[in-house]
Amino acid sequence: MAPCQNSNRVIAFDCKGEFLVLKIVTKGRNKESEEEMQKASVSVQRPRKHTPIAAVDESAAVEESEEEVQTASVSVKRPRTHTALAVVDESAAVISKTRVMEVMEKEAKKADYGKPECEKRIEEAVANLELKWRKAVNEMRKEHAASLQKLEKELELKRMKAVKELREEHTQRVQTLEGEVRNLKAEIAAMADQRNGESNPEIQNRTCMGGTWQEQERRE
């Protein structure tokens, strides 16, 4: 089926070579009868004409093939001409690049000079914040150093006090130990004297009459 471009009709083809022209009608708009629609449909049978195949001239085909082979061989035998490449001047290229870069830098500088006020304000605010941040960091470092020094001094004082207390305790213990040792020595000497007196009766008599020799010497 193929629709028509300039009308509301459709051409329907058949496998036998027949075709029908149909008119499309919508309900309620076009009230034509069935007879008019039958009149509009036309069936036509067109006979297909088979065109005979032209006879091939073998001699002409052979001549054409020989001519093509000859032209191909001539094209192969022709020498190839090499075109000289254009020499590139590197110095000129470098100079042009430097000029382009200079121009771009100048334009960039001009653009920097022509910045809007909002960007300038933002840059100033950022710079002020950086300065404040640096000042705050320096102050914090100073406070930290001062607190460290204070702690070191306090620790040193505590250490000195502890060392002093330990030394005093050590001296007291040494003194007490020395006193105990002296007392022990005196007790040991007294015990030895008693044993010696018991073994010698003469010494006992002397002790009974007037005490020990040491006491008599002291009296004299």
From TrEMBL:
Residues 197-207 have a biased composition (Polar residues). Residues 30-51, 192-220 are annotated as: Disordered. It comes from the Eukaryota. This is Uncharacterized protein.
